Amino acid sequence: MYRIKRLAKPFFVWIFFLVFFSAAYSQRSMKLIDSRATNETKFLYRNLQKLSKKHILFGHQHAMEYGHGWQGEDGRSDVKSVTGSHPGVIGVDFSGLSGRPDSDIQKEKVVLQKLISETYNRGAVVTASWHFNNPASAGGFYWKDSVSVATVPLLLPGGQYNRQYKKILKDIADVADSVRGADGKLAPVIFRPYHEFDGDWFWWGESHCSGEDFISLWKFTVSYLRDSLSVHNFIYAFSPDNKFMNRKKYLERYPGDEWVDILGIDNYGDWGRDGKYDLQAGIKKLQIVSDYAREANKVAAFTETGLESIPNKTWWTEILLKSLKSANVRLAYVLVWRNDARSPTHFYAPFPGQSSTLDFIKFYADPYSYFENDLQKKSLYKK
Questions:
Q1: Calpha distance 68→323 (Å, rounded)
Q2: d(CA 371, CA 37)
Q3: Which residues pair with 92 in a beta bridge?
Q4: Using one digit for the tens of pLDDT, what is the confidence trace for 89-123?
Q5: Which pLDDT does position 29 carry in this prediction?
Q6: Which CATH number does 34-376 carry?
Q7: Of residues 309, 321, 108, the one with CA closest to residue 116
Q8: How far apart are the C-alpha atoms of 37 and 165, rounded to whole Å?
Q9: Domain coordinates of the chain in residue numbers?
Q10: How far apart are CA 14 and CA 19, in angstroms?
């Protein structure tokens, strides 16, 4: 007995130190690409990773700005009208910060400031996409063969439009520096530039620029915002479309772990678009994203998806929820696209009376899904 006791103490001490240092190492390595990120931004990032082990946040694009048949009503969202809770993730867009008169851009800054600050005050999360109007040609953010030009290299240092690009980034930085909550702290924002770059519909798509130029543009964008304009409340998300079936293809235009915080995917095609489902492929792609994020100690997310008009009455539980659970993935959030205020068919979340409402309530009630109300139990912005 005496010998056993003598051996037991060092053994348990060794176990204690192993667990302690493993946890400490994980916390140290779980870090943002911005070493000067605000505390709230760091806490959000770590808490998103923790939450993804057992839950997933539900998000909706433009949820607080407009919905099916309405626009600009404070405190309203279609999701809340159905469930009693706003989404856990609110999508905004920086599209209004370029290609418009300066007076309109200043008005857009005020709108974004209010949306982002109020979402932070409620404890929910903001993610900003960027439908960036082409600064070098007509056509808006889409590629149009008759008018669009290969713009990406023109935005890089030495390029014809680099100075203009810096001004646009300064307007984005102005928003970032203005979004303070009631606590006086800057509200963190998940910034998701140049999404779906593996398609050909946007002017930054892979058909319209080289991989080298795309990666250079990504690095310049992050560096200029972070290092030159001192934006320290952004979390940077990388999100191709669904045109990959292996890790190598997914990472083909990846700028590197030191330039990305969140690994994402936009995928409508495998989840019912045009009545076509390929859930096995969709799940595999989520697994590729989730697995790489876990290996790199980063956060993963399903950055865009949805089924327009939601004709499948049980899409939420039988398609989305079952697939997410069966995939054994860790995803911080899933975001569906917007509900247009005027179109009778362009919507991706239910509203009162829509045919999938009852199923969406079941999705809401499932312990796996988190909405804004669930975040009131513990702040994502605290340690």
A1: 27
A2: 26
A3: 128
A4: 999 999 999 999 999 999 999 999 999 999 999 99
A5: 58
A6: 3.20.20.80
A7: 108
A8: 23
A9: 1-30, 34-376
A10: 9
How long a stretch of residues is the chain? 383
Predicted local confidence at residue 327, as pLDDT: 81
CB atoms within 10 A of CB 37: 22
Query: What is the per-residue pLDDT for 10?
Result: 52
The alpha carbon of 380 is separated from its chain's Cα centroid by a whole number of angstroms, namely 15
Residue 346: other Cβ atoms inside 10 A: 14
What pLDDT is recorded for position 2? 37
Distance, in Å, from the CA atom of 371 to the CA atom of 81, rounded to the nearest integer, reads: 13
Q: Residue 320: what residue type?
A: L
Residues in a beta bridge with 127? 91, 190
* DSSP character string of 118-175: HHHHHT-EEEEE-----TTSSSTTB--TTT----HHHHSTTSTTHHHHHHHHHHHHHH
What is the model's pLDDT at position 28?
A: 45
Round to the nearest angstrom and report the end-to-end CA distance of the chain: 44
d(CA 292, CA 244): 14
**CB atoms near residue 180 (< 10 Å):** 16
Regions of the chain where pLDDT drops below 50: 1-9, 11-28
Q: What is the pLDDT of residue 328?
A: 85
Residue pointed to by tokens 């993610």: 127
pLDDT digits (tens, 9 = 90+) for 33-84: 999 999 999 999 999 999 999 999 999 999 999 999 999 999 999 999 999 9
Q: How many angstroms from the chain centroid is the CA of residue 369?
A: 16
CB 119 within 8 A of CB 90: yes
Residue with tokens 């989305």: 320
CB contact at 8 A, 158 and 99: no
Predicted TM-score of the model (pTM)? 0.93
Pairwise CA distance, residues 256 & 6, whole Å: 49
* Apex 81 CA angle, 80 and 82, nearest 5: 90
Q: Is 198 exposed, middle or buried (0-12, 13-18, 19+ CB in 10 A)?
A: buried
Number of continuous H segments (helices) and E segments (strands) in the chain: 11, 11
Instruction: Round to whole Å and give the CA distance between 281 and 141.
Output: 28
Other CB atoms within 10 Å distance of the CB of residue 321: 20
Inter-residue contact 45 to 51 (CB < 8 Å): no
